[in-house]
Amino acid sequence: MKRPWAAFAVIATLASGFDAQAQAQTSGGSSTITLAIGTNVGGGYDLYGRLAARHLGRMMKGAPLVVPSNMPGAGQLIMTNWLYNVAPKNGSAIGLVPSTTALENLFGNPRANYDARNFKWIGSLNGHTAIAISWHASPIKTADDLFTDVIIGGGAPSSDVTIWPRLLNNILGTRIKIVAGYVGTSQIALAMESGEVHGQIGADWDGLKASRPDWIQNQRIRVVMQLVSARHPELANVPTVLDYVRTDSDRRLLQLFIDRLSYGRPLAAPPGTPDAEVQNLKAGFQAMIQDPEFRREAETLRATINPARGEEIEALIQKVYAAPHDVLSRAVQELQKASK
Question: How far, in Å, CA of 76 to CA of 53, rounded?
């Protein structure tokens, strides 16, 4: 497994610039907040992050300017490590931290130098319905075709779009060949369109609707499986991964993986951020998700808003940390295999 130490060095250099921007306390007024996004421009995470950046500041005390900053790499680990270990802790830095990435340390990833329980969770813009999709011209017509020889695009070793197909191979016995190394789902999308790969597994349904609405409107893709425990209302005829489980042990294991996906796009501040700044961020988030202007833009972007409070995210993280030892141990083993 490659270690992105060079990338971390670049981020550390950039951090000095962020520190220079962040001398004033945000609750006191005129400062800038960096909103870090761990993917490239163009995907679902980027769309939601930039949407929040355009509205959050005006809902907060002091009306700070919120500036999105893309820090892609290592399945969003570079950004999350920066937020936890390097980012200024005065309320001037937040990040869009997927719950899966937040829990990488618990699941044994040695490059995840953070503890999800210590982040200051602000709120989540929506949940996460992970799906398996195929290009309309590919040989993948249904979920059953994943048990034949098919080619799926993947990203960094620790990214969902790499881990999920490997988990399906290891647990369900699918026969998926993963072409890894694409930077973000936007690059995998281009590979699907060009015929390099047949599809991708682990992308989010709401994010896909927002970032690639033409795919859905023009029937350019098929949704063949949902990586959830209950079917999404818009995908009522699409089977879930649990429909293919063969043993109770596998069901408990996959349920744990599903739980870690529950909140797809949470915003977090670094550990040590003062309570006053955290409360300002939380209050701004709650005001934002009810704001008519924010809601109108979200609707225009086809960005589904199904929010959760920071306390709900904290409860989810505590639930996953409290999983039975045997289930968690097996999950760690499976993820280590899947991320190699």
Answer: 18
